[in-house]
Amino acid sequence: IPATRNPPSGFVFNANNTPYVSSVGPGQPSPDDYSPTMGIETQITNRALRLRRLLAEKETISRDDFYGIKYDLFYDDELEAIVRLRAFIDAGKSNLPASLHSAFDLLASWDLGTQRENPAAALALLTLEPLLDNRRRRDEVNLIEELARAQDHLTTHFGRIDPPYGDVVRHVRGDSSWAIDGGPDIVRAVYADTDPTTGHLRNVAGDSYIMFVEWDADGTVSSRSIHNFGSATLDSSSPHYADQAPLFINHEDRKVRLDLADVLANASRDYRP
Fold this sequence. Notes:
The protein contains 9 helices and 7 strands. By secondary structure, the chain is α+β, with helices and mostly antiparallel strands. Helix 5 (121-132) packs across helix 6.
């Protein structure tokens, strides 16, 4: 089975992509060493492209650098969907009906990001959804038709083609709803389903439980984590049903208390089940 162990680069990653892309430089498994009859997938995801690019940019990576990489919000220029988008944009709008010209111009201005305030991201992701969201993947995609569909969706539900991305994509728990950044196959992964009544895209998959672990120079381990909702996942009456969501949407986390004395000193309740 392909494996990468302690490559010279100093890092290993996987984001649901081929194991033949797991680092940068030597030390990665080669497809030449494995029979094609093993059926090992060879696709590469946007998350893998971004991780490879961002991890390789620096000789050393600080804690802040690592957090920034984990919460990266962009699509990579090498991703097939973006290559197809560039070709569509380069072809110009002469073959488009006049009703799509403004939407085309907005799509052409998109910076490939999924920031909450991004005015072009909602239109772009709705247009490229069948190329970006593996749950709805289609190889045969007419981008003119997809752009028209995206424009209709936004104008119908939001009255404009350029609403801030976070006005459209929402993180919902009970009666609470928050703007969230990220998107399908973004390192800050957000996969959304459409609410047909409101037109909002509701976060249903992707980032959920996240944990950062590190060791100091003396070998002492420490950890921080966050859950997309809270620790009481099934009890809507619990104060912990959604108490971590505001931290989650802001790329924040909480200390994991590993020492018993620390746990007891910070416990909100001490009881015998």
